[in-house]
Amino acid sequence: MSISLKYAVVERERRYRLGRLPDGVSSTREILDRYVTGTRLRLREVRESDGTVTRKFGHKVRLTDGPAEVACTNFYLDDAEWALLAALPARLLRKRRHMVHRDGLLVAVDEHEDGTLIAEIDDGDRPSDFVPDWLDVVDDVTADEAWTGARLAH
Length: 154
Known about the structure:
Helix content is about 10%, strand content about 50%. It has two helices and nine strands; from the N terminus they run βββββαββββα. It has helices spanning about 80-85, 150; strands spanning about 10-20, 25-35, 40-50, 55-60, 70-75, 90-100, 105-110, 115-120, 135-140. The chain has an eight-stranded antiparallel β-barrel. The longest helix has 8 residues, at about 80-85.
């Protein structure tokens, strides 16, 4: 089956488990992900530090065998749409996302409820293997299914 990417955004992300949160956090937001049982669908609620709430309904399609490259399509939801879709059975993942702007690089660091830190570097259209020395990398989990959001949710 051919996959149309007409409305999708392709994400090429590398993920690293970290030993500590790096210096340079510019913003932090709270995220609740609801992975709809038996699907590739995710509901996401993002709470900014100023109280702004954004809710999205997303669909992910893998472009390769592993989790490093996916096509994502999102729809923004109002309160009624969120309430209706949030009633679907789902696994939950709560995390705090810290945005780190440093040395011309943007890194998202997710702090999970158990304290685990996962850094994500989006390579966009330019694949890279550059890892800044200020990231306290414990290991590269880019290709490890166990460290995907869907697998971490419960």
